[in-house]
Amino acid sequence: MLNSEYLLTDEQMIEFISKGFLVLQNDLPEQLHQDVMNKIYYVMHEEGNPGNNILPRVPEIQQLFETSTVKGALTSVLGPDYYMHPHRHCHYNQPGNQTPGGGQWHKDGYWSSMRSHRPWWAMIFYYTHDITEDLGPTAIMPGTQYYEKFLGDKGETLLPTGKAGTMVLVHFDLWHKASLNVSKFDRYMLKFQFARLKEPEYPSWNHKSKDMVVPEDVPFVHSNLWQDVWDWLRSEKTKSTGIKMVDDSDLSQLKAELNAEDAFVRGRAADQIGLMGEAGASLASELGRLLSDTVEGVALNAAYALGHIGQLGAQELLDQLAVGSNLISKRAAYGLQGAGSIVIPGLIETLHHKEEKKRALAAFVLGMLGSHAREAVPTLIKSLKDESQLVRRNIIESLGMIVHPADHIVPELVKALEESVLEESSNSAKSRELNDINQPYIINKIGYTAALSLLRTGKEDSANIVVQSLERALNSKDRYIRAYVAEALSHLRTEDSIDVLIRFCRSSRWCADTHKASTF
After folding, report:
1. What is the mean pLDDT of each run of 10 residues along the chain (520 residues)?
2. What is the pTM of this model?
3. Which of 99, 225, 279, 327 could form a disulfide with 178 if both were Cys (CB 3.0 to 4.6 A apart)?
């Protein structure tokens, strides 16, 4: 049982929401860190980077992620049943060189069908030795986790440092890069990724105050976006700030500011309107126009403001989703998740849109609405026959987030997983579209997503059909499907599931002492 003293505070959670990272210290014996370092050094220099196999190759690493400090931080952000993703990596930054594959500002390749502002995913950067700026720590750009465009010199560069055991808990989509190692020593950083398995049912940190008090040193201001994440993590619906009467002159001033040349002024005005709740509804169309703003931060503020001003704002978002460009539709989708249940009928209608990306975005939003979107399940299931792989994949992931009625959802996920694994070995057009250039590290997009959704929902329905499907999927060509399936079998905890898992582990056991230089 995790001691609550290791959970994050309200202040830390708000810092994570607004800045996208927290620097924490994992206090462990120096000897453990040194032993881990020695083994990593040997593996890197004698065998090369083992990639995803860094944990079984150096199994002592597991102890670093089993501490109350790490568990408390991850539980706070991702809930108590978070999952350590099978993609792990040791970033090796040699003196005078950038880490291979790093050096450029980037977001990590994502695992879901599209990136989520709400923390369904997180990462930890872990240093097993004292880390100083000259050693080339991973640079981060605070507050950029919600931006798809790189901010360049408009963003702040931060180099987190500290003693051995320093870890940086980051929002999965925070912009980051390897910095230059100007020392004479090697720098190692363990990057591990983690996934949330279900929507929040209660605040999973040391929650004391319902009010979100944002620190003064935030690099950008997105009050409505942050409020949406804060309230979602608290399992609360975002409510108006209580402003009932707004002076017409104030609205006129805000309307004028929405047209200002200064992007900061436009973004601030959009934020203020959203905080008014329904009192700002008369400016819905003006906010809708800003979804096409060339400054991404302004557009995000407009999208989330529309989601918080009631029916008129929700309808504006639905209209923009249906008729806007791909960029505008995506921004509208993010705003719609904060509007709540009132948008569900419109999203169900959009599932029949002639354009696949509109249908896919509607499915995405329904998933973000989670259990509140139960009424959409029959239409989502019917839409699993959609000709678009993107639409089907979004639906499959969304069904895994909605969860209930499980007796309808789980059989469909089982079917999707089995059919996609069978398609892997065929030469049909359907098999060729399982993979695409945007996520080449996932071989079978449909099967991968179905396996993830079954990991989230498998316990909720008949274990027999789930176990049979998961057993067959252990033969998938996709390594991440196999990993998800193994974890799902573990979660089921039935006699049959454990039996299947044991037989799988016997044939796939990794020996941490076997390497290219070993004889026996």
Report:
1. 93 97 96 95 90 93 96 98 95 74 82 94 96 94 96 93 97 95 91 97 95 90 96 86 69 95 96 95 97 97 97 98 97 96 97 97 97 97 96 97 95 96 76 68 94 92 87 94 95 93 86 70
2. 0.94
3. 99
The total number of structural domains that make up the chain = 3
The answer to whether residue 74 is domain-embedded is: yes
What's the distance, CA 141 to chain centroid? 17
- On whether residue 289 sits in a domain, the answer given is yes
- DSSP sequence for 169-236: EEETT--EEEPP--SSS-EEEEEEEEE--S--SS--SB---SS----TT-SS--HHHHHHHHHHHTT-
| Residue with token string 């945007």 | 438
Residue 113 is classified by DSSP as S
Q: Are residues 170 and 228 in the same domain?
A: no
Helix or strand run (H / E) with residue 125: strand 121-126
Say which CATH number the domain at 319 has: 1.25.10.10
> What is the spatial order of strands in the sheet that 187-195 belongs to?
21-25, 166-171, 121-126, 187-195, 83-93
- Phi, psi at 290, each rounded to 5°: -75, -5
